[in-house]
Amino acid sequence: MDDHELLRDGLRRLIEDQPDITVVGELDDGQGALELVRRCKPRVVVLDLQMPCMDGLEVARQIAPEVPTTKILVLSTFHNSGQAIRAFEAGASGYVLKTSIRRELLEGIRTVARGKRFVCAEIAKEVAAQLFEERLTEREIQLLNLIAEGNQNKQIAWSLDLSENTIKGLLKTLFQKLGARDRTHAVVLASRLGWIRL
With contact defined as beta carbons under 8 Å apart, do 77 and 50 qualify? Predict the structure, then answer.
């Protein structure tokens, strides 16, 4: 039994022990989870961010508009506010770290089932603080990913169909938002905050 199977088995047993919660299904890949939600329309779906076939963020992006009655609770190993905020932007109503499952999963399920938002205590302050700070745009995240891949301004400009001067302007704004000294520092900071994955 691999780690994912052990986790799913433990989650199922934890949830099944609750008199007010019923497990209607479980799957180990994103595409299957999406199809199950479309078919069963559960009140709450617990989504792991790291799944084969389709990651949890993409599943959430599709569930949110297609099955609006299903609330999404994301389960993650990422201890950073950036990833949590991206999950909420994708349509999630809650975010629980795998390290706090025993303490907070059931509360998270019940909270999102009532139509409220839930963020695990370990990163709640970080999420609140970041929501009031300047946020990165999708274009800036795209730019950071291209930098992380080792692309220079000319290559980035070509990839994004922009001029090199526009890239320089975007970088200047990005450095200010992140408080970064240079390209490498920007990538490191963005990774720590969960905006990109290295």
Answer: yes
The verdict on residue 197 lying in a domain is: no
H or E segment at 44?
strand 44-48
Tens digits of per-residue pLDDT, 53-69?
888 899 999 999 999 99
Domain hosting 37: range is 3-130
Tokens of 5: 């199977």
Shared domain check, 49 and 8: yes
Three-class SS of residue 72? strand
Claim to verify: residue 124 and residue 144 sit in the same structural domain? no
Task: Tell me the whole-structure pTM to 2 decimals.
Answer: 0.67
Task: Tell whether 27 and 79 lie within a shared domain.
Answer: yes
Express each pLDDT in 150-171 by its tens digit: 999 999 999 999 999 999 999 9
Nearest to 95 by CA among 126, 62, 65: 126
Sorting pLDDT into bands at 50, 70 and 90, what band is 2?
very low
